Amino acid sequence: MTTIAWLGLLIIVAISAFFLGSLFTKKQFKHEELEQQAQQAEQNLEQYRQDVADHLANTKKLVGKMQDNYSQLLQHVEDTNQLLLEEKRSQPNQPFFSKETTEQLQASLRSRPEKRRNSESVHNAPPADYAEGESGLFSDDRAKSEQLKTS
Question: Over the chain, what HEC string results?
Answer without folding.
Answer: CHHHHHHHHHHHHHHHHHHHHHHHHHHHHHHHHHHHHHHHHHHHHHHHHHHHHHHHHHHHHHHHHHHHHHHHHHHHHHHHHHHHHHHHHHCCCCCCCCHHHHHHHHHHHHHCCCCCCCHHHHHHCCCCCCCCCCCCCCHHHHHHHHHHHHC
